[in-house]
Amino acid sequence: MDRLFGLDMQLLMDALQFGASVFVLFTLASYLLFNPVRKLLKDRQEGIRKDLDDASADKKSAADLKNQYEEKLKGIDKEAEQILSEARQKALKNEARIIEEAKEEAARIIGRAEEEIVLEKKRAMDEVKQQMISIASMMAAKVVAASINTQIQDTLVDETLKEMGDSTWQS
To answer: Is the pTM of this model over 0.70?
Structure first.
């Protein structure tokens, strides 16, 4: 061999065989290694994209729920005020009803007391009449015992009536 680099047929065949071997190995490596890795990366990208889309949808849904809850909270304040207002109105109605019942009860008690007073007055008047009758009877007994004339008897009755008063006989 006199040259360092000889371009002969053997070299070309070896180079061609080497190139074909590299191509076959590359194709085989691509089929066995690169394509599964590419598929894995593509699946990973799709998964991440899907997760991002889901997260975006969840975020939007959460924002909608937040807005709904805020609206409900505003409505709850109004509703609570309305409930308190209704409770106040019921309390005022109950208060008025209780006061009315108390007034009616007081009127009944006063009515019974007035009836009792009238009855007591009648009893007292009856007792006074009974005492007057007993006094008149005693006077009559004294008159009869003393044998007084009718003029003295009339005078005694008039004096007794003046002592008791005219209002005692009025009923």
So the answer is: no
